Amino acid sequence: MAQKVAVLKLKMMVDVKAKKVVFAESGKEFVDFLFDIMNLPLATVVKLLNAKDMVGCLGELYKSIETLDTGYFEGNQNKDSVLKPSTAVVVPLLSLKEFPTTIKYSKCKVPAHKCISDYPSAICPVCRSEMSESSFTYVTPKTSSSNTYVKGPATYMVMDNLAVKPMSIALIKSHVEDFDKLEEKEVQVGLQEGLAILKASFETDMVLTNVFLGKKIKGCKPSSS
User: Which of 66, 113, 121, 209 has CA 20 to 30 A from 150's CA?
Assistant: First the structure.
């Protein structure tokens, strides 16, 4: 059965004449998603957005690590250590889950010595014999759901540049000069939109306008691996 992808709703206030999102009215779920973005390792972000479509040189760095011969890595490291960093962040909107990580290590053949090392063929400091290589699977603590950060059922104002503020009448008035120019627009935020928001956040300070009112952002297809 295919995994059900999370979908959030967002109510935006749009300046029709300027064709710009002034702000979005959001519940805690969308704000939690934005906060999750701040916790993502950089390598995970590059993988999610597809390295070949990244602005700047991070995509090229990612691809060069992918193609680097494993012989250049230290004995206790591999490509996954860099490209697939362990993280407890679960982001349902991006279909991002934590997967178990296999860790290699060396241990003394004499259990009573209780000596281990993250280097292959290390020497036991007790008996001076070469340790044997082994491995174990590290699993991050299981959580029942994604991380939550802000309280509900409060309503939040998310600006076009993704700045988050508690919603208030005074705050709305400080950002809106003429309410007659505004039009309410409700949108859905799923996997595709979530990736577009993530990508646009590296490229512009008009994220919501670009994602929901502008042209589609290139390179936002889900990664195949």
Answer: 209
Greatest CA span in the chain, whole angstroms? 82
Asked, for residue 206, whether it belongs to a domain, the answer is: no
Sheet of 101-107: strands edge to edge? Answer: 116-117, 101-107, 132-138
Asked whether residue 8 is assigned to any structural domain, the reply reads no
User: What domain range includes position 123?
Assistant: 101-138
Asked, for residue 70, whether it belongs to a domain, the answer is no
SS (H, E, C) the chain: CCCCCCCEEEEEEEECCCCEEEEEEECHHHHHHHHHHHHCCHHHHHHHCCHHHCCCCHHHHHHHHHHCCHHHCCCCCCHHHHHCCCCCCCEHHHCECCCCEEEEEEECCCHHHCCEECCCCCECCCCCCECEEEEEEECCCCCCCCCCCCCCCCCEEEECCCCEEECCHHHHHHHCCCHHHEEEEEEEECHHHHHHHHHHCCCCCCHHHHHHCCCCCCCCCCCCC
Whether pLDDT at 225 is above 50: no
- The confidence band for 79, taking pLDDT boundaries of 50, 70 and 90, is confident
Residue 45, in any domain of the structure: no
